[in-house]
UniProtKB/TrEMBL annotation:
Gene assigned in the entry: rlmN
Function in brief: Specifically methylates position 2 of adenine 2503 in 23S rRNA and position 2 of adenine 37 in tRNAs.
UniProt GO molecular function: 4 iron, 4 sulfur cluster binding; metal ion binding; rRNA (adenine(2503)-C2-)-methyltransferase activity; rRNA binding; tRNA (adenine(37)-C2)-methyltransferase activity; tRNA binding
Cofactor notes: Binds 1 [4Fe-4S] cluster. The cluster is coordinated with 3 cysteines and an exchangeable S-adenosyl-L-methionine.
Enzyme Commission designation: 2.1.1.192
Cross-referenced InterPro entries: Aldolase_TIM (IPR013785), Methyltransferase_A (IPR040072), RlmN_N (IPR048641), RNA_MTrfase_RlmN (IPR027492), rRNA_lsu_MTrfase_RlmN/Cfr (IPR004383), rSAM (IPR007197), rSAM_sf (IPR058240)
Catalytic activity: adenosine(37) in tRNA + 2 reduced [2Fe-2S]-[ferredoxin] + 2 S-adenosyl-L-methionine = 2-methyladenosine(37) in tRNA + 5'-deoxyadenosine + L-methionine + 2 oxidized [2Fe-2S]-[ferredoxin] + S-adenosyl-L-homocysteine; adenosine(2503) in 23S rRNA + 2 reduced [2Fe-2S]-[ferredoxin] + 2 S-adenosyl-L-methionine = 2-methyladenosine(2503) in 23S rRNA + 5'-deoxyadenosine + L-methionine + 2 oxidized [2Fe-2S]-[ferredoxin] + S-adenosyl-L-homocysteine
Active site: residue positions: 95, 340
Positions of S-adenosyl-L-methionine binding: 165-166, 197, 220-222, 297
Protein name: Probable dual-specificity RNA methyltransferase RlmN
More about this protein: Reaction proceeds by a ping-pong mechanism involving intermediate methylation of a conserved cysteine residue.
Taxonomic superkingdom: Bacteria
Amino acid sequence: MPTNLKPYVYDYTLEDWQAWVKENGESGFRAGQIFDWLYVKRVSSFDAMTNLPKSLRDKLRDQFDFVTLNEVAHYRSKDGTVKFLFELTDKNAIETVIMKHSYGNSICVTTQVGCRIGCTFCASTLGGLKRNLTSGEIIAQVVKAQQLLDETEERVSSIVIMGIGEPFENYDAVMKFLKVMIHPKGLNIGQRHITVSTSGIVPNIYRFADEDTQINLAISIHAPNDELRSKLMPVNRRYPFADLLEACRYYVAKTGRRITFEYALMGNVNDRPEHAEELARVLKTFPMAHVNLIPVNFVSERDYVRTPRNDIFAFQRILEKNKVNATIRREQGSDIAAACGQLRAKHMESGAR
């Protein structure tokens, strides 16, 4: 857990603030004012909340902290990608990325310090899991990104929960984060402009299906069968491929929404034509299934190599020949180590956490 003894102001939803002002003998409308200062005006201190009585500001200061995200590093890529390395109050480090697209600014947020899933191609899992982030620590990443975009009068248009960590192993905090993000009196991000990605925590895929949201779901699949997936993703031993696919079918049936299956291509590991054919056989039974092909990022501690460009296109053609929609993820920020976990891994090498 973080080292602060008080809750963070961002840990509270509007409903939480409404309960808090009532418990503290304040007028009900003060909750909306506090929420407005946090997410519309985006202030960073209680003193800046100038339409609140000093007595209320003192109560807030006594009972809450702002999330402290100390900026250790801030890199800007030639393609416009911005990557932050933040230090938390307990000196652990996390990453947040702003990605520039033709349709707007997308923010990739982190949900855990480290990760215990153990995917063999990923930098995020190096060093294991340290702790979960609070909902406020996740929210603070978006607020920080929006504060930077405020300088050029831009705004966060979409969010991907694909940073360090497994979101569905920090499920309650992630759902609270989402509730604040989509609130019309907060940052007001459209639900269909938010995507949460999981490595396949089966029980929480069922929970997420039952949440009745319009938020997008992405599944990191990376292999077309149990044997290979277990080698690449140890989580598959806990939640076998068949169980994962059954949960995905439940999600599609319950929500009527498509799933994006993320597939990181690794040279001579999972990128051969026979892998594409097998993946197509597995996914063609899913209505509206979409595969996002991801050229694997080089991680010095790992042995995987990137699939040649022509082989990536060949893999895509096989899927589409079999009526499975597939796109190739556009690489962004490669010149600033913008892939998930790379910057933190370098930071850890220096003796930091």
